Amino acid sequence: MRRDGAEILENEDNIDFEDTRNIELVEFRVAQLLDALGQDIDSNEHIRQTPSRVASFLLESTANGFDGKDAESILDPIWPETYPEPTTIGGIKFSSLCPHHLIPFVGYATIGYHSNKKVVGLSKLPRLVHAHSKGLILQEKLTVDIVDSLVKILEPKGAAVHIEAEHSCMTIRGVKDRETLTTTSRFVGSMQKDPFRSEFLVIARRGGSRWER
């Protein structure tokens, strides 16, 4: 149940300030921020419950991040098969939070691997992208971490990830360039060379074409 911001601020004496994942503490800090910005959370009905909403969003979005330890369970089951060509999925939509400004970046990921006696179900690849995108993370690190998980768990002949994302920290603040997309890629093993690299990038660009400009 969401509480009003004024009620949250009045509850300071009952908050455990040592519990950093406590929703009441996060609500209190958000209410303090709004108050410091001169927002009247007591009389403005549209932001009375904003501290509760923002606290829930931040706790869900950060979730302590994803350190890759559960990648094996995400990719499970793994079957002892090999295919001569890479398996690639494009157009995987994801969202994450910029660690510099705590505002979202959203985009499309393309992920592929060239199997070496280990294959996984197709749905596992988007799940891996979504798991890694939890928390406060740079797009560059997100790209590398996804590939590293594929390499560690599947031991493929090659793996690749391509990400195109729109960063709110560039579109609504700073340069305010609403046409900017940030692209990151990582290729390892057989995916570094043609024809696999070129074929992968064709699929990646097709996935990125979903952007409406």
Description of the structure:
This protein is an alpha+beta fold. The chain has two domains: 5-62, no CATH class; 71-208, GTP cyclohydrolase I, C-terminal domain/NADPH-dependent 7-cyano-7-deazaguanine reductase, N-terminal domain (GTP Cyclohydrolase I, domain 2, 2-Layer Sandwich), CATH 3.30.1130. Helices cover 38% and strands 21% of the residues. The chain has helices spanning 5-10, 23-36, 50-62, 71-75, 124-132, 139-154, 168-171, 196-208, and strands spanning 78-79, 87-97, 104-114, 119-120, 158-167, 182-189. The chain is elongated, with a radius of gyration of 21 Å. The mean pLDDT is 87.
Which features characterize this protein?
6 strands; 213 residues; alpha+beta; two-stranded antiparallel ribbon
Total count of strands: 6
Q: What is the strand arrangement across the widest sheet?
A: 2-3-5-6
CATH topology of the largest domain: GTP Cyclohydrolase I, domain 2
Give the biggest beta sheet. 4 strands, antiparallel
CATH superfamily of the largest domain: GTP cyclohydrolase I, C-terminal domain/NADPH-dependent 7-cyano-7-deazaguanine reductase, N-terminal domain
What's the tally of helices? 8
What is the CATH domain class of the largest domain? Alpha Beta
Which SSEs are present, and which pair or pack?
Blueprint: H1 5-10, H2 23-36, H3 50-62, H4 71-75, E1 78-79, E2 87-97, E3 104-114, E4 119-120, H5 124-132, H6 139-154, E5 158-167, H7 168-171, E6 182-189, H8 196-208
Antiparallel strand pairs: 1-4, 2-3, 3-5, 5-6
Helix pairs in contact: 2-3
